[in-house]
Amino acid sequence: LNHIITPKCIPKEKYVNLGADPEKLLRYDGIDEIAWLSEFVPNPNVLKKLDLEKGEYVIIRSEPSFASYFIEQLRGEETLISDFFPKIYKSFPELKYLLLVRSQKQENFLRRKLKQFKGYENILISRYVPNMADLCFYARLVISGGGTIVRESSLLNVPSIEFFPGETAPQEIFLIENGFPLYHLKDSDLIVRRSKEILSKSIGPNRFTSSFKKRINEFENPNILCFNVVKENLQY
């Protein structure tokens, strides 16, 4: 490898400890998700497929509980969603909820734990829905047990809660310190409390506009850095 393009927010040591040559690291002020979201154009037509309205639904993504770092917290099929979702729904039953799980076992577990909601038309439990960036953009709130979705949604100016049980990742710290609407909460009661606070507030006038791009453009785009490196090397 001639170059390794990495966010400045991730310590160099993490790459060096994995065998990377520190002289080959090209650092940029941003995170990877900026690469694809800088050109993102929201498509409201995707809402029709799921009978959704802008700002009238919540996305909740389960944690990867089968991963090694979850072994001591949860069994492979479990998800913390079963603890906090009922309390959120009780306060906001008029909203729609997309509960996205990562495996058939998680889906079975969640359906069993939430059996009192069986048949509710405003609750969808699924392992996959397409056009996630679009769905996140138009959501009232995004809650996830993993980092990728909430990094994307908070960059899109969507209130986002991550409930990953480990330490806050450098990318998430970057977003929080730069004022993006991201919260890392590990306790179910705190998740419920912050969710209620967010859902109780009115939606801002610029919420469903392209204003998010102005914030994203304040930081470096790894696509541009990569392009310039390739262009420079092709000249020789």
Structural class: alpha/beta
Structural domain count: 2
Count of helix runs: 11
Q: Fill in the CATH topology of the largest domain.
A: Rossmann fold
Order of neighbouring strands in the sheet with most strands: 5-4-3-6-7-8
Relevant CATH superfamily of the largest domain: Glycogen Phosphorylase B
Shape summary: globular
The CATH architecture of the largest domain can be given as 3-Layer(aba) Sandwich
The average pLDDT is 93
Oligomer: single chain
How many angstroms separate the termini? 17 Å
Assign a percent range to the helix content. Answer: 25-40%
The first-level CATH class of the largest domain is given as Alpha Beta
Report the portion of residues in β strands: 5-15%
In terms of per-residue confidence, which ranges show pLDDT below 50 for 5 or more consecutive residues?
none
Task: Name the helix and strand elements from N-terminus to C-terminus, one letter apiece.
Answer: EHEHHEHEHEHEHEHEHHH
**How many strand segments?**
8
* Largest sheet data: 6 strands, parallel
Supply Rg: 19 Å
Summarize the structure.
With 236 residues, the chain is an alpha/beta fold.
Name some characteristics of this structure.
Rossmann fold, alpha/beta, 2 domains, 11 helices, six-stranded parallel β-sheet, two-stranded parallel ribbon, 236 residues
Question: Could you characterize what this model shows?
Answer:
- With 236 residues, the chain is α/β, with parallel strands linked by helices.
- The protein has two domains: 1-30, no CATH class; 46-202, Glycogen Phosphorylase B (Rossmann fold).
- Helix content is 37%, strand content 14%.
- The strands form two sheets. Strands 5-4-3-6-7-8 form a six-stranded parallel sheet, with helices on both faces.
- Strand 1 (4-7), helix 1 and strand 2 form a beta-alpha-beta unit.
- Helix 4 (81-91) runs parallel beside helix 9 (188-200).
- The longest helix has 13 residues, at 188-200.
- The mean pLDDT is 93.
